[in-house]
Amino acid sequence: MKDAHLARSPIRFGTFELDPQSGELRKQGLKVRLQEQPFQILQILLEHPGKVVTREDLQQRIWPSDTFVDFDHGLYNAIKKLREALGDSADTPRYVETLSRRGYRFIASLNVPAPDRSSSAPAADTPKDSIAVLPFLNLSSDPENEFFADGITEEIINALAQIEGLHVVARTSAFSFKGKQVDLRIIGEQLKVRTILEGSVRRSGNHLRISAQLVNVADGYHLWSERYDREMKDIFQVQDEIARSIATRLKVASEIKAQESLVKPGTKNLQAYSLYVKGRALLYCRGVKVQTALECFNQAATLDSEYALAWAGIADAYTLLGFYGFVHPETSRPKWQEAARRALAADPLLAEAHNALAFGSLMYERDKPLAEREFLSALELNPLYVQARDWYACFYLQLAVGRFDEGIVHAELAVESDPLSCYANSILGLLYGATGRFSDAVRRAERAVDLDSDSFLARWALQTVFFFSGRFEESVAAGRAALAGSGRHPWALAILTVTLAEWEKLGEAEAVYSELVARARREYILPSALALSSGAVGRYDEAMRYAREAVAIRDPFRVSFSSYWSASARLRADPQIDQMLKENGIDRPHSWPHFATYRAGNSGVFCGSQSGTGAHSLRDFRVRS
To answer: Are 511 and 533 in contact (CB under 8 A)?
Structure first.
């Protein structure tokens, strides 16, 4: 159904404005002469932005059956006159795209004022020099080129991020608007930016056509636009030209040297580049798509053995496959080591390579000094690298060394940089929950679920922070949702077991643990998840066996044994297990921080476990706060 507000309000796109009530088309405030039928076609296309309007639809609305005209000739002439008025082209469309023998589609973004907006002025906290790069439209016939268009977008984001003084929205938040027709003013408000870059990519064989336009959020007018008709070999040069043009237009380019390239492709092999950007897009999806991402990275590295980004992608993929339990660590660990080494050898100044080394060193080797050095190197090389900031915040600062305040700061910076990222909000929620900020934790985790209801991590984060908060019934409900969407992942089963045990539903906790044990007889199950579950139900001999196995095979999820993570408290309540974990580099503090609390009903309670007590439940350590 056509939006009622859209039907009566002026509709802005580019430098144009269509007024449905007056029947006028204006360009920068000046009336554009346009005959009735071309105007009607434009109006119909604007009613369905981004969607195909068929020839049959246009015939029924503009050339009814009782009108004796040559429809094909009339439609051709009307479209031609419309394109002339817009300065558009059938070969390189900016506004109206032809779909052969089907119809037409309006492909530019609309800048329709929101009905409840009283002012178009940017918010006071919006940085003066700020930009969001929206995903470029793929106008190619091959859907595989969707990954290529996304890769171009991300390269431009990375290039702009190098410009000092320019606030650039990170990838995930910008990509949250992909495929959506949203008023640019609303996007600007949500992302806190004053300008937006949008564009399109058409790839045909070795030929490439890219259009880009920089739009002022406040009024919807173009500040700059350009079209590039090049060969594929020029793709990196085009990306660099776009970034420089934007910097110049926004007057933040004084420090950029003419000979200094903002885009650093890392390979001259265009097929390897295409495979890498596809793999990177799949890696962001996590879950089973990590395996497909790994295949893309491997193919890219085969085509160019010195492609550092491809090797960094391989390293990340293997660490994640081990962390999520899709691959046995004895398989993933040596593969990670080789890939991380080759990534750094190929490009010692690549942030992705340093981050890959940091994450694997921490998760597999528990080499904390090396991990911190490499995380900090990655962030120094690319402060906008949200994955590095979140991994440093959560896995090193929080779980490895218990520097809680620093971890929170970095996780908050990640959300500030990427406010619509489900991942960044999930991590911040987990850190809030682990440090006793329960209401903040639940709000963040619920926000993450709102941003991506299909995300297992978001639903697991919500399950976990409800547990931290002592809201056990809600944790179990969230856990059921996490299990339903993940094939009953061991992470969710482990937290469910601990929650049920803490809720004193030991029979149900035993049943969940039995499910994990039964599955472990026929498939690889993370021994760390088995250890947490068996510890929760008080089976400490079994818990010790699983914990030793996790340590021996370097199960990356053994990070969950950390004494800074209260879900491990039942496991570590056994003195022998606790001592074994300390001896194997999983440290614990001398005492729990004052804010590591549970809540029971409306009362806050302090909990922890001291080695040597032999206590088997968090409840044994409760004192009134």
So the answer is: no
